[in-house]
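hey so u asked for the seq, here:
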Amino acid sequence: MSEQPANQECFARAMALFDAANREDPNQEAGQPKELLYSQRMSEMLQRFAPNADEAVQLAVRAQHICRWRVPRSAYPLTKDGYFQWRTGLYQMHAELAGDLMHQAGVDEATITRAKTAIAKRRLKANPDSQLLEDVAGLVFIEHYLSGFAASKPDYDEAKWIDIIRKTWQKMSPLAHQFALSGALRLPEPYVPLITRAVG
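ran it, structure tokens below
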């Protein structure tokens, strides 16, 4: 057997292990485990935004939120510092778990290292893999989750929403900005004027 098919088989096994782990999510959305649906949306967005992304990035994108429900927000202090501690802890947990599953699947060490670095959000802006994952996450949030998040925060005023959208926008690259405004992204219709003001 040649090396390339073997690598493709390892990649497929890793993706299947990611999906099996996320299928255990007890939280449901649209009739599916929440994090399984999120991971599929991430992969779908990567295919639209960067269809030539290699396997390391595809793996990182698929595993970005792997088993997120295992570390609830309530596990950390309900303060601003506690929130950042929670997020940092999640990044590390996702990276380590994804790394273990990639090892089980037989993925090569170089690919595992790249994928874990991106999942852990290391060297954003400087590391192309980390930035691409951040771009995809921002695009998925805008297309699929902004409306629901807004509905869950009825007390937020327009200034607060502009700030949230701007913070998401600032994490994304100019290429992702262009993609989002090109018509390729399905913007949530009620929030288009707000998005336009926020990024303008």
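Strands lie at 28-29, 32-33. The radius of gyration is 17 Å.
lmk if thats what u needed
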